[in-house]
Design goal:
It is built from 7 helices and 4 strands; from the N terminus they run βααβααβααβα. By secondary structure, it is α/β, with parallel strands linked by helices. The chain has one domain: Rossmann fold (3-Layer(aba) Sandwich).
Length: 142
């Protein structure tokens, strides 16, 4: 059994077809075997915003977005509050010119000691610089 901090970029990859969707789906399949995926409380908002963008700018039908939102809400993600992570996230963001919402994932990984899985290259670079253990999504394959 393993625990991972997972960025919204990876969660979205399970919903909207992308280059790493098969890897993301395999990662989430591991939840059935007892693995735990931890996300900051606002991750669902980030993912829902991506669905909104898909409808608004990529011609995704609204009913499809609504089904995907239902799938998102059903994912057994362990959501954690971010209030106590904000000071560290602000420092990380300022040091690495990274948005605070991306820095929260790094702060959460630092606090918990769990590996971070992300497809966001600037976030990955900042996480490496901060000493966060990273787990490549490509490690999850058939």
């Amino acid at each position: 059994m393993a625990t991972y901090i997972v960025d919204a970029s990876v969660v979205v990859e399970t919903l909207v077809e992308g280059p790493h969707s098969s890897n993301a789906r395999l990662l989430f399949h591991k939840l059935l075997r007892g693995d735990v995926i931890v996300v900051p409380e606002f991750c669902l908002v980030e993912c829902t915003n991506v669905l909104w963008k898909q409808v608004r700018f990529q011609n995704m039908p609204k009913p499809q977005a609504e089904r995907l939102l239902s799938d998102l809400r059903a994912l057994p993600l362990k959501r954690v509050p971010v209030k106590k992570l904000l000071p560290v996230a602000l420092d990380i963001g300022l040091r690495h010119h990274l948005a605070v919402y991306d820095s929260i994932y790094i702060a959460l990984a630092l606090r918990s000691g769990y590996p971070l899985i992300s497809l966001d290259h600037p976030q990955v670079a900042a996480a490496e610089a901060e000493g966060v253990v990273l787990k490549p999504l490509t490690d999850f394959r058939d």
